[in-house]
């Protein structure tokens, strides 16, 4: 036998048994954003490499080591998108969507990062995200957080997620803090791990969210960014906290929360869970008022988040919140004997006019038992059987596959109405 070709490591198939749960999740996401008046934007999966370098930042994990970059046939450097914000800003600028306007946008789709695959961390994964442009006030920071809280509620996982919140201030405030932080880190330079030593001068704030417990311990007395904020940044943050208090969203202020992308300012947040082990962040985001200008547009305030769909699916599976996901089919139509095949196929086709009814037919023969086995395997609630007798009397036989009920004979004329009431 020929050798089988395998999927790329870290890139998963979503199989037919898994897709109902994905579809349910996607439907919840779509309904939720619709309730807030957000519009969908779809951007290409491939962009110029420069877009991500300029937005995410040269000294970030993503740009330093995680991007799928390749030269196309013209020699242009292209990258499979590792996240959605850069592309959204690029498209917004390109099509004049952001210039003196307010926009509330959402997107959903695959992202690509060359990371070490493990549970909850893949090389192709899916993100759902929202991005709001043109509104500087913390009201909209609160809005996207309220939206995320509503998502947890609809998915039934409110109990299992916690909100962590921080503020990074504005670039000037952060620059002052950065100097103080570098001075602090220099005292321990020899004790820092390799990653932290490398980041100490290039991106010192990233040292704060190190996962290395030894380095974390050294940071106990590190200066806190909160002490370097100006009045406006402080007011923005306290307004956000007030709003969250007012709508009953609980949060913890985590001064170490810095996020791995360079474009954030002021508000940053993560929703985390402890039901997934190490990969605990399920949704993350913040404000990025500088990015639109940095990518060539007019300065425009912006805030958004991205949610990792695989991690949510894993949570729903782990917490066994998957049982009410609908099956693929309601009715299975089958024919007894070749002479009934055409009629059976026609009946199936007519039944599909009933709104929402899912009908599968297979008239490929086999004895009654075999056909009923197929019908049962389809997951349908009802089987419709057409044999010579039924055909002659303009009837069909209706069999209940999941209930202990007698078979019924139903006139073909009234079949659709009968079924519509039954299902
Ligand atoms: P992490 O700390 O887990 O590496 P990140 O800071 O790189 O996350 P973001 O770039 O903010 O994550 O992406 C937002 C969300 O997308 C994450 O919280 C997570 O749920 C999901 N995500 C990010 N990278 C992956 C991946 N490689 N596989 C699956 N989901 C991912
Ligand atoms: Mg990452």
UniProtKB/TrEMBL annotation:
GO cellular component: cytoplasm
Keyword annotations from UniProtKB, A to Z: Aminoacyl-tRNA synthetase, ATP-binding, Cytoplasm, Ligase, Nucleotide-binding, Protein biosynthesis
Positions of L-histidine binding: 83-85, 113, 127, 131, 259, 263-264
Domain Aminoacyl-transfer RNA synthetases class-II family profile: 1-316
Annotated InterPro entries: aa-tRNA-synth_II, aa-tRNA-synth_II/BPL/LPL, Anticodon-bd, Anticodon-bd_dom_sf, His-tRNA-ligase, HisRS-like_core, HisRS/HisZ, HisRS_anticodon
Pfam families named among the record's database cross-references: HGTP_anticodon (PF03129), tRNA-synt_His (PF13393)
Record EC number: 6.1.1.21
Biological processes per GO annotation: histidyl-tRNA aminoacylation
Gene3D superfamilies xrefs: Anticodon-binding domain, Bira Bifunctional Protein, Domain 2
A GO MF term: ATP binding
Localization per record: Cytoplasm
Keyword ATP-binding part of the UniProt annotation: yes
SUPFAM superfamilies in the record: Class II aaRS ABD-related, Class II aaRS and biotin synthetases
Catalytic activity: tRNA(His) + L-histidine + ATP = L-histidyl-tRNA(His) + AMP + diphosphate + H(+)
PANTHER family membership: HISTIDINE--TRNA LIGASE, MITOCHONDRIAL-RELATED, HISTIDYL-TRNA SYNTHETASE
Quaternary data: Homodimer.
Family stated for the protein in its record: Belongs to the class-II aminoacyl-tRNA synthetase family.
UniProt protein name: Histidine--tRNA ligase
């Amino acid at each position: 036998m020929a050798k089988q070709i395998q999927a790329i490591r870290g890139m998963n198939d979503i199989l037919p048994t898994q897709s109902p749960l994905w579809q349910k999740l996607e439907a919840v996401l779509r309904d939720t954003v619709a309730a807030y008046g957000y519009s969908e934007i779809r951007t290409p999966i491939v962009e110029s490499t420069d877009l991500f370098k300029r937005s995410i930042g040269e000294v970030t994990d993503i740009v330093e080591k995680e991007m799928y970059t390749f030269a196309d046939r013209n020699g242009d450097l292209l990258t499979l998108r590792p996240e959605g914000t850069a592309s959204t800003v690029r498209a917004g600028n390109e099509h004049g969507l952001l210039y003196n306007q307010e926009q509330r946008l959402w997107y959903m789709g695959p992202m690509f990062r060359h990371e070490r695959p493990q549970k909850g961390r893949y090389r192709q994964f899916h993100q759902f995200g929202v991005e709001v442009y043109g509104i500087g006030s913390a009201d909209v920071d609160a809005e996207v957080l309220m939206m995320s809280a509503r998502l947890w509620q609809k998915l039934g996982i409110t109990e299992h997620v916690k909100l962590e919140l921080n503020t990074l201030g504005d670039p000037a405030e952060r620059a002052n803090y950065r100097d103080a932080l570098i001075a602090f880190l220099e005292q321990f330079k020899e004790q820092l791990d390799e990653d932290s030593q490398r980041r100490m001068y290039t991106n010192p704030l990233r040292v704060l969210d190190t996962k290395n417990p030894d380095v974390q311990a050294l940071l106990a007395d590190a200066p806190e960014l909160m002490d370097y904020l100006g009045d406006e940044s402080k007011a923005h943050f306290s307004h956000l906290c007030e709003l969250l208090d007012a709508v009953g969203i609980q949060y913890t202020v985590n001064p170490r929360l810095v996020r791995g992308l360079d474009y954030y300012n002021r508000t940053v947040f993560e929703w985390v869970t402890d039901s997934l082990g190490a990969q605990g962040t399920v949704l993350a985001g913040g404000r990025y008022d500088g990015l639109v200008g940095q990518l060539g547009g007019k300065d425009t305030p912006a805030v958004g988040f991205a949610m990792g769909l695989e991690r949510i699916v894993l949570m729903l599976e782990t917490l066994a919140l998957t049982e009410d996901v609908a099956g693929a089919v309601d009715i299975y139509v089958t024919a007894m004997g070749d002479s009934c095949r055409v009629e059976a196929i026609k009946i199936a086709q007519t039944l599909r006019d009933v709104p929402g009814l899912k009908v599968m037919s297979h008239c490929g023969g086999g004895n009654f038992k075999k056909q009923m086995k197929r019908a049962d395997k389809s997951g349908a609630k009802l089987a419709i059987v057409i044999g010579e007798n039924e055909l002659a009397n303009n009837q069909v036989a209706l069999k209940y596959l999941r209930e202990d009920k007698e078979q019924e004979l139903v006139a073909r004329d009234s079949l659709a109405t009968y079924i519509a009431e039954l299902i």
